[in-house]
Design goal:
Keywords: DNA-binding, Transcription, Transcription regulation
Order of helices and strands: HHHHEHEHEHEEHEHEHEHEEHEE
CATH topology of the largest domain: Rossmann fold
CATH superfamily of the largest domain: Response regulator
Number of helices: 12
Protein name: LacI family transcriptional regulator
Shape: elongated
Number of strands: 12
Strand content: 15-25%
Structural class: alpha/beta
Helix content: 40-55%
InterPro entries: HTH_LacI, LacI/GalR-like_sensor, Lambda_DNA-bd_dom_sf, Peripla_BP_I, RNA_pol_sigma_54
Distance between the termini: 87 Å
Organism: Reichenbachiella ulvae
Number of domains: 3
CATH architecture of the largest domain: 3-Layer(aba) Sandwich
CATH class of the largest domain: Alpha Beta
Length: about 350
């Protein structure tokens, strides 16, 4: 068969139709496996399309359907272990459903988050999955998404304002309370907390869960036992722990808002010549991949990152494919587990 297609020109449905002597509409339906087209014609069309390396014009298709089958995702950090597992869950569900995913990271800054939102809107994504940054206190850029009637699902970090969006979270309050339950059961009496950024709802809930656990077990408490680690990073965990170790009634256990801060805490404890957990126990939150590689291994609350990503993607796609059906937002809460390791083993006090 003589092929009269220029090498540089993209192959179109009209090119295939001309070569086969059939109409472009027949080619289009054959490529879509339409039941009205005979198996013989479908084979001819698909074989030639493969031979010519035909690729559908997704831009033209999206203009006709007003859909791009693209999901925009904004996360604080791609390199963060928890968020990397969330990404895996999102991709697994989205690609099975025929959606492409565009990822942006805010780098934990409000300004970058706004830029990312505008960029994804400009790319005409069908919907958004968002976990907002530590700096974000103004949610107007999310309201702009809602004004455009674009589905939006928040995961992990959820605004404390009613934006009428579905949310996928864990019960941070209950998880933190269970952390104190565990430490109390291991006979620790003076439990401190490395708290996260005060504007994040998850930090507030973990702090309140910690305090509720302290009250429930009637444990010793003083205000200095709560140290705010604004960045929640290694250095902040180290700095805050040094402050705790200066106290007259030094804590015998520390519950950190996240594992990275817990690693910093472990370093500070060791530098002070103290032993973990004999002198001070340490417990984290997130169960990073390094938790089992520290010395001693770190006890941590395990967040279901992959399941959270899957749940968020499933919910968004459900809303995207609902058409004109009005689906009310839902708040889905996933369970966490305590992974007990050597950093909190039972001691006699």
């Amino acid at each position: 068969m003589l092929i009269r297609i220029m090498k540089q020109a993209p192959v179109t449905i009209k090119d295939i139709a001309r070569e086969l002597g059939i109409s472009p509409s027949t080619v289009s339906r054959a490529l879509k496996d339409h039941p009205d087209i005979s198996p013989e014609t479908k084979k001819l069309v698909n074989d030639l399309a493969a031979q010519l390396n035909y690729e559908p014009n997704t831009i033209a298709m999206s203009l006709r359907s007003k859909k791009t089958h693209t999901i925009g995702v904004i996360i604080p950090e791609i390199v963060h272990f928890f968020f990397s597992t969330v990404i895996s869950g999102i991709e697994e569900v989205a690609y099975k459903k025929g959606y492409t995913v565009m990822f942006c990271q805010s780098n934990e800054t409000y300004e970058k988050e706004v830029i990312d939102t505008k960029a994804l809107l400009a790319h005409r994504v069908d919907g958004f999955l968002i976990s907002y940054s530590k700096e974000t206190t103004n949610f107007d850029h999310f309201r702009e998404i809602k004004k455009k009637e674009i589905p939006l699902v928040f995961f992990d970090r959820v605004p404390n304002e009613d934006l009428e969006c579905s949310t996928i979270t864990i019960n941070d309050f209950e998880s933190a309370e269970r952390a104190v339950d565990h430490l109390a059961a291991e006979n620790y009496k003076r439990i401190a907390h490395l708290a996260g950024p005060q504007n994040l709802e998850i930090s507030k809930q973990r702090l309140e869960g910690y305090k509720n656990g302290i009250r429930k077990h009637n444990l010793y408490f003083e205000e200095a036992y709560v140290q705010y680690c604004g960045k929640g990073d290694f250095e902040e965990g180290q700095r805050c722990t040094k402050e705790l170790l200066k106290l007259k009634n030094r804590p015998d256990a520390i519950f950190a808002n996240n594992d990275v801060a817990a690693y910093g805490s472990m370093k500070a404890i060791k530098e002070a010549g103290l032993k973990i957990p004999d002198d001070v126990a340490i417990m984290g939150f997130s169960n990073w991949q390094f938790a089992s590689l520290t010395e001693p291994q770190l006890t941590s609350i395990a967040q279901p990152g992959i399941e959270m990503g899957k749940a968020a993607a499933r919910r968004l796609i459900m809303e995207l494919e609902a058409g004109n059906e009005d689906i009310p937002p839902v708040d889905e809460v996933l369970k966490t587990d305590i992974i007990v390791r050597d950093s909190t083993r039972s001691v006699a006090k």
